[in-house]
Design a protein that fits this description.
The chain contains eleven helices and two strands; from the N terminus they run H-H-H-H-H-H-H-H-H-H-H-E-E. It has 235 residues and is an all-alpha fold. It has a two-stranded antiparallel sheet. A hairpin with a 2-residue loop joins strand 1 and strand 2. The longest helix has 16 residues. The structure holds iron/sulfur cluster.
């Protein structure tokens, strides 16, 4: 099955810019951005980020406030703070063998950076990869990671997989099945997450938002500093 998958990938690979580098910093940035944000939205932001901070040392030297502002619009702003702290750790101590020592790096990101930057034979298992493995009953190795991402994103879709176009169809026991709709993601509109985003945007614009709960929560995550009743970005 692996050979079929890789042959399909060589013809159908999505041209994603982070696939053209093995720089661990550039790959870490892409992986952290992709944790909660769609590929199409990440591509221009990834380019802009690397243009502004091309190296891990450059990012480490940036102010937390600038990093948070640059992240605006990507959502889940805590990722920006963690990425910045990770860069400071690497700039001071180098890349650790155990990448989960870096802030914001869990087992998935560790596997992705380990594979794409350091050439380790580990498979980062996201929802797409898990789905393809479960449906095919096959355990793929690290060399199949990018191909599995693409198969899961374009062919082996969550609800109605496009088995007629799938390179694995001849050997897949789930061929032709349909699946129940997945649980809907909780709404952003009206959520506390949205209140936090609005409050952070206001602080970044030099305003003082009145949403105290959101400000306290942002301060707890290191996204704003509260002093004498005033909120500012960390400097
Ligand atoms: S045959 Fe269908 S269910 Fe099986 S891997 Fe391909 S798209 Fe997914």
């Amino acid at each position: 099955m692996k050979d079929l998958l890789l042959a399909w990938y060589s013809q159908n690979k999505r041209p994603l810019p982070w696939r053209e580098t093995t720089d661990p910093y550039a790959i870490l940035v892409s992986e952290v951005m992709l944790q909660q944000t769609q590929v199409d939205r990440v591509i221009p932001r990834w380019h802009a980020w690397l243009e502004r901070w091309p190296t891990v040392e450059a990012l480490a030297a940036a102010s937390p406030g600038d990093v948070i502002v640059q992240w605006q619009g990507l959502g889940y702003n805590r990722r920006a703070v963690s990425l910045h702290r990770a860069a400071q750790h690497v700039a001071a101590h180098g890349w650790p063998d155990d990448l989960t020592e870096l802030p914001g790096v869990g087992p998935y990101t560790e596997a992705a950076v380990g594979n794409f930057a350091f050439g380790r034979d580990v498979l980062p298992i996201d929802t797409n990869v898990r789905r393809v493995q479960e449906r095919t009953g096959e355990l793929f190795d690290g060399s199949c990671a990018q191909a599995l991402f693409d198969l899961g994103a374009t062919i082996c879709l969550a609800r109605i997989p496009r088995c007629g176009e799938c390179p694995l169809a001849a050997e897949c026991p789930s061929r032709g099945r349909r699946y129940e709709p997945l649980r809907k993601q909780s709404k952003f509109e009206g959520s506390f997450r949205q209140r936090r985003a609005l409050a952070l945007r206001a602080v970044a614009a030099g305003e003082q938002p009145s949403d105290g709960d959101a400000l306290v929560s942002l301060a707890r995550d290191g996204l704003v500093v509260l002093q004498d009743g005033a909120a500012t970005l960390p400097s």
